[in-house]
Structures are given as C-alpha cells and as structure tokens.
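Q: Convert this sequence to structure tokens.
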Amino acid sequence: MENDSGFDKLYEDLKSKYLQEVEDLRLEEQNIIKKNLRLNYTIFLSGVVLILLVLIITFFTNNSDDAIEYMQSNVMPLIGFVILGTVLAFAFIPRYKFGKADYRSEYKQKIVKAILEYFNENLEYSLRKGIDEADYLNADFENYDVYFSEDLITGKLKNGCQFSFAEVATRKRYEDLNGQRRTKDIFEGAFAKIETPKPFKAALYLRKDLKDKGVLEKISSLKLNFKDLRTEMDSDEFKQFFDVYCNDKIIAMQLLTADIMQLLVDFRKEMHKNFEITIKDDNIYIRFDEEFLFRVLNIETSTFDEQAIYRQYKILKFIFALTNNIVKLLKETEYDVKTSENSEI
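A:
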C-alpha cells in the first residue's frame, strides 16, 4: 500500500469507533457456530448409538435368518435416515443463527457506510440490493447468461452526477462432454455507473490491452468491427495497459488528456488489477476486476482487514477523481450533438 494520509486517518477512525463492536459480534457468531457444530456431532452420535442398539436387540431377539430379513426391511432404512439427517444437520444448522445478528452484515453496514461518509458524497449503501442488469448490459462488456449483483451504493455526487456502484457477477451456461448443463464464471468484480450532466452521443470503449485484438470482437456483447474503431494514443505507457476504441476519434483525444491517461495508468500500476471503461448514452461505466471488493474476513480470523479496506477506499477515491475530471472535460468540450448522434454506433 502507498502512503495515504487520508486513508490512515480513515482507518484509525474506523478502528476507534467500530473495532471492539464488530469484534464482539464476530466472537459471538463464532461461539454460535461452535455450539451448532457440537449439536451436529450430538445428532450424529445419537444416530450411531440408536443404530447399534437396534442391531443388538435384533440379533439377540431373533434367529440369524429372521435378523437378516429384519435388518433389510427395517434397519437399513433407519441407517439411511440417520445418514440423511446428519448430512442435513451439518449443512443447515451452522447457518442458523438462532435470531442473532449476522456478523458479516453488521460489519458491512458499519464499515462500508463509514467509508462513504468519509468521502461526503451523499451516498447510501444497500447490502441486499444490486445494480440493474440493464445498466450492465448497456456498458457492452461481454456475453453472458446469468447475472447477479449486490452491495449497492447509490446517490448524487457533489459534481451533480447520479452514481450507482455494486458488486457484479456474470456466468455462462454450457454443456459438458456428458451432456450435463453447467455454468462457468465470466466476470466477478465491481461495476459503477455515473450519469453525466452533459449529453455524450459518441461511444468510447477503454479496454484492457490484448495482444490479440480480434479477441474483443468475439467476447463483446456488441457485434462491432473494433479494428476500425481503434484509436491510437500518444502515451506508450498508457498503451501497455489499455486499448481505446471510439467512433469519434477527435472526442476520444479531447477526453483522454495526458492528465487523465496518467491517472488511469497510476491507478492500474498501484492496484495491479484490470479495469475497463465505457462512455456512451450520457453515462460513464467503469468495471473493476476486483473479486469480493466488500468481502468480510473468515470468521476465524481478526476483524479488520486493512488491505481490503484500503482497496475499497482507493477504488472509490479513483472513481470520484476520474468522474470529476471527465465531467469537467465534457462541459468544456465543444461538439455538435447532432453530428455526434449521426456517428453513434
């Protein structure tokens, strides 16, 4: 992690306000899980004892032929029932909290909200809600069959833009060699939508650099000839990480200034994670290859993960800085909206 006085202050404030509270919740839930496991083992051992008692009684009260027949008709179903009950107990009892607060939910509600309050951007956090699939589809990232989203952050930024941000996962259905239907992960990460105050009728795609430029046409949800849309930028360092595609190359040059390209490169180099941007239809879309951004540590470990909180902080800080810069440039950029509409993809 790089030195960041803003994060240092935020992290110390989080620890002083919430560390003991969420640690108590973590230990409480840890104890509940241990009690549930003991209950599981008690159920299992009781079933084993019951089976042994039935077997003993059967052999001592019947001759060998009758005992075997009795076992087949009565004891074997009992054994199956005990095994099934044990499996169900181990599967569901540890998840049941007996009315207690969920540690992970409470952690997210407190820590994520505190991070948002630090930025003072009038944002709200909804643990169970997600970003609309239509917004993700409009960003033109990839083809998929299954969509899931949660941990939604929404609000109006100080620069006047409506803002939505959430974790997103997409999957593709397929059949294996045996004809069984399965799904495979396509993308897991975070996705942001920012509505710009000025119409942007061109379409700009900033994608991670691919040696095989033809791959983009295969995986994209758009049926486009990306080769014709390729826009070469002046920065060699920028081109190491990103490919730019736009149907109005003049506007692309106006938006991707040297300062913005450096902001993108610096963030990519520090975080060591890919991210991609689409600007179209009066919206800025950004997605981050950051799996489980709002993750909570394993219940057995310590409460606070400084690295995880730092990544949450840096991604939000980057989004706000980039959005402010792009919105400022959009307001300053002169172009004919009708002309841009005619060049729309």
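The mean pLDDT is 79.
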